[in-house]
Design goal:
Strand order of the largest sheet of chain C: 1-9-8
Order of helices and strands of chain A: HHHEEHHHEEHH
Strand order of the largest sheet of chain A: 1-2
Structural class of chain A: mainly alpha
Radius of gyration of chain A: 26 Å
Number of helices of chain C: 4
Oligomer: heterotrimer
Largest interface: A-B, 63 and 66 residues
Largest sheet of chain A: 2 strands, antiparallel
Number of strands of chain C: 9
Largest sheet of chain C: 3 strands, antiparallel
């Protein structure tokens, strides 16, 4: 092949490459203007050795019971799971007994309610999803059991693959915390339910759920808006990933073991291959 | 240096008794043991075949135990997966391994394929080996897609709806086929049930295909970085065991370390947040995106936005998407160059990297909503994908002047073969 | 090469081989340990899960059960018979001589408090559920329970008296956590 042809092909390829580069960069710049950056926090449970701050999560549990539970279910959590937050068996029985759980049918074929037991799950505030929607202007409040996982990426899944967010996803906890703190005076041209700068689109059906002094903490901690938001987020992060601590603990052991084994294999490989030239 | 291609022999009476009746020991010896002569110059890119095997084993083993705890019913599937995560002993570990194992499988297989493309491993006499490999890829894609539906999250449900609806693009009988796939008028319980059944079946089909893939591999042996066939087995090849067994195990170790980082510390990195919301047939998520390994194909699907010579855009997109994989099967005949390795193909080498870039670009486009310039990018990327395989590869094969090949693979790196001097 | 040199060279080869073998054995042992550890989650996942274990014990309030009445509760997926026995039943159960029994257990060993009999309602023969819980059921020749499948008769202490069953009805582990509440399991 002659050189002219060669260089033509090369230049053609280069041209395609360049145009791709232009296309590549321009849209991601454009998108950045639209999206809001979430403030990142160092959570008690982030990092290699992170564990849930028990005191904070227990306060968060109080916030859930006194405020969130009015509208939001927590379907996947049983009272017995609360032992993971450091509650004793006796305390768990007491919490459970505060709830009336529907059971049945009994010998007469009737459904009845009885006090909750540790094996029961948190009852939902509404009997079904349609009832939940009907009571809330047509939008059922989401279940909170997995909310920090379900909102990873800030409630906008397109952020997932953005080059602007090389970590892949923002912690759902960051989003939740920001959302609870993100109720503001709406801009003048705002139309919608409630303005929240961190909710995709800005208009959220939920009115501001917590503010300063929304709860009175049983451990005497000052209940500022930020404190409440932090505590309930920690609680919900635990509810979404109760296995997190066990996972990280096991992970460190497994990785150390595998690294050691791999090093051994490398030495052995070098040894065995030493006679190959 | 150990001699390659030795015959199996044993002093053990028990082994010989079995061997006489079922020659399983000599079979292993000749396929994975010292009896299998392998080129001595394979680089680490050749590790990815065994790594794909590792991924397959991981997926099958974790899949079997997950199936013991999973309930394929629309009312229970989502919660049964969460029960695995929360209540089943080590359930979270098994599920996260399976979830991330899918990504592992695709990463190593894609690298394995691109290794084949670079070093010309698909060429005579390994065409069938290559085609069986493509069948494995197709079976993997079907398995992965179906498996993603099982947790019955929002992305499961809507992904299933979108992808099964592709078949409605088939003229005349399309809608009937979709109804047949669904077993109803929408993705519902019958769909979930049959998907579970197929998700358990297909991996065994893959195992069968892998067996044929490895069989075909053993007929002519591995290609190698020079692309030059082994001429003198005595000097140029070494026994698979222990040389490549230990090298493969080392690769397995490195891979498992990286894999563990994801499983234990970023288990949802490759996942979609929306799949932690239970499927709701009445609410579509804002952006439906498939798993990362399907993104380039998703971009090709969406690249067709207008009808063309009477063919609806939808059909074109579907045909292009499936076509983009199927045309890979023609590569052994589209590539006219007698030289295998891109090492000695200066022009092909450059276009190879552009092609790699193009695939990454398509992946990027596939992961974003089809808006503005991204649509154009997807179209250019798609056009280039097909032009590369159908036009550039044949043309380069005909017009390119390859660099002189080494006389044998025994020539060490750095030693220029005498003919290469100018 | 002198003899000495040859011996040296040979020794070196042997040393190399020993080191190589040592490495192979170490690596194999470490790998085997890893595989063994990795196998455990795959086995353990078959053991009862946390939600199943949470139902391993059942608390029952006895106060609504009147004398002469029985209730059936579910414990670990099996029926448990709880009977508030009458004095006549208790007397009858206690005066039986152990020599008359196939499976020798005194009534005192079977009932923590004589008025409350708690037992697993599964026939020890082949796993059917005996009759005798409701007033209208056939209670067998000994006034206790009767298994209709193969005709096993149990007395007022739930002991096998006639028929093919080998053992008395099983007493589950239970304790009185206060006067009128028991915890089974």
């Amino acid at each position: 092949m002659n050189t002219a042809k060669k260089s033509f092909l090369l230049r053609a390829a280069l041209a395609i490459l360049m145009s791709c580069y232009v296309f590549f960069v321009v849209p991601s710049e454009g998108q950045a203007a639209k999206s809001v950056t979430l403030p990142k926090r160092e959570w008690s449970f982030s990092g290699l050795f992170g564990t849930f701050d028990r005191a904070s999560a227990q306060r968060g549990f109080q916030v859930y019971r006194e405020i969130c539970a009015g509208c939001h279910s927590l379907d996947l959590i049983a009272f017995r799971n609360l032992s993971g937050l450091g509650y004793t068996e006796g305390q768990i029985k007491e919490f459970a007994a505060e709830y009336e759980i529907e059971d049945g049918p009994n010998e007469e074929g009737e459904f009845f309610t009885r006090p909750g037991r540790p094996a029961d799950y948190f009852p939902s505030p509404y009997s079904n999803k349609k009832a939940a929607a009907a009571a809330n202007n047509g939008k059922a409040p989401p279940d909170l059991s997995l909310i920090t996982k379900a909102r990873a990426g800030g409630g906008d899944s397109s952020i997932r693959y953005s080059l602007k967010n090389p970590g892949g996803y923002a912690l759902g906890a960051d989003y939740l915390f920001a959302l609870l703190m993100g109720y503001e005076e709406p801009p003048e041209d705002f139309e919608g339910d409630n303005y929240n700068r961190y909710f995709p689109g800005g208009s959220i059906a939920m009115a501001q759920p917590i503010e300063d002094e929304s709860v009175e903490y049983s451990d005497g901690t000052e209940a500022s808006l930020q404190q409440i938001a932090l505590d309930v987020t920690t609680f919900l992060a635990w509810a979404a990933e109760p296995e997190l601590e066990a996972r990280k603990r096991l992970g460190i052991k497994v990785i150390l073991f595998l690294a050691f084994l791999t090093a051994l294999l490398y030495v052995l490989k070098r040894k065995i291959w030493s006679d190959i030239h | 240096m150990a001699k390659s291609g030795t015959k199996f022999q044993s002093n053990s009476k028990i082994i010989n008794w079995i061997e006489y009746r079922l020659p399983i020991f000599s079979f292993l010896h000749n396929s994975l043991g010292a009896g299998y002569a392998t080129p001595k110059n394979l680089n680490y890119w050749w590790n990815f075949g065994s790594l794909a095997g590792l991924a397959l084993i991981i997926m099958v083993v974790t899949g079997i135990v997950l199936a013991m705890n999973y309930t394929p019913h629309v009312d229970h599937a989502f919660n049964s997966v969460e029960r695995i995560m929360r209540d089943v002993n080590f359930g979270w570990l098994l599920r996260y391994i399976h979830m991330n194992g899918g990504s592992l499988f695709f990463i190593v297989v894609y690298i394995h394929i691109f290794r084949g493309l670079y070093f010309g491993s698909y060429k005579n006499p390994r065409e069938l080996l290559w085609i069986i490999g493509i069948l494995i890829l197709l079976a993997m894609m079907a398995t992965a897609f179906i498996g993603y539906v099982l947790p019955w999250g929002q992305m499961s449900y809507w992904g299933a709806t979108v992808i099964t609806s592709l078949f409605s693009a088939i003229p005349v009988i399309g809608d009937d086929i979709v109804t047949l796939l669904w077993g109803g008028f929408t993705v519902d319980n019958p769909t979930l049930n049959r998907f579970f059944s197929l998700h358990y079946l297909l991996p065994f089909v893959i195992i069968g295909l892998v067996f044929m893939h490895v069989w075909a591999l053993h007929i002519h042996g591995s290609n190698n970085p020079t692309g030059v066939e082994v001429k003198s087995p005595k000097e140029e090849s070494i026994p698979f065991h222990p040389y490549y067994t230990v090298k493969d195990f080392f690769g397995v170790g490195v891979t498992l370390v990286i894999f563990s980082v994801f499983v234990f510390f970023a288990p949802n990195y490759f996942g979609e947040a929306d799949n932690y919301i239970m499927a709701d047939p009445l609410a579509t998520p804002a952006h439906i995106v498939p798993e990362w390994y399907f993104l380039p194909f998703y971009a090709i699907l969406r690249a067709f936005t207008v009808d063309f010579i009477g063919i609806p855009a939808k059909l074109l997109g579907v045909a292009a998407m499936f076509g983009s994989i199927l045309i890979l099967a023609l590569l052994p005949w589209l590539d006219r160059s007698k030289v295998r390795s891109a090492k000695y193909r200066p022009i092909y080498k450059q276009f190879y990297w552009i092609f790699v870039f193009d695939c990454l670009l398509l992946g990027y486009v596939g992961g974003h909503p089809p808006e503005g310039l991204l649509v154009t990018m997807g179209q250019i990327g798609t056009a280039y994908y097909f032009i590369h395989i159908l036009v550039l590869v044949p043309l380069i094969g005909i017009f390119e002047t390859p660099e002189p090949l080494p006389d044998s693979i025994a020539v060490k790196a750095g030693d220029k073969p005498s003919t290469a001097e100018q | 090469m002198s003899d000495e040199e040859a011996v040296e060279a040979k020794k070196k080869v042997v040393d190399e081989d020993t080191r190589r073998d040592f490495l192979i054995w170490t690596t194999s042992a470490v790998s085997a340990f890893g595989v063994g550890m990795a196998a455990w989650p795959f086995i353990d996942q078959m053991n009862p899960a946390a939600d199943t274990l949470a139902l391993a014990s059942t608390e029952v309030d006895l106060s609504p059960i009147e004398e002469g009445q029985s209730i059936t509760v579910v414990w670990r997926g099996k029926p448990v018979f709880i009977r508030h026995r009458t004095t006549a039943e208790i007397d009858e159960a206690q005066k039986v001589s152990l020599d008359d029994l196939r499976h020798k257990e005194s009534d005192e060993d079977r009932a923590q408090k004589p008025e409350w009999l708690v037992m697993v309602g599964v026939c020890t023969h082949l796993g059917c559920i005996p009759l005798g819980q409701s007033g209208t059921d056939e209670k067998g020749e000994f006034g206790g329970w009767f298994c209709p499948c193969h005709g096993s008769h149990y007395d007022t202490s739930g002991r096998i008296r006639k028929g093919p069953a080998p053992d008395n009805l099983l007493i589950p582990p239970y304790e009185f956590i206060d006067d009128m509440v028991i915890k089974i399991g």
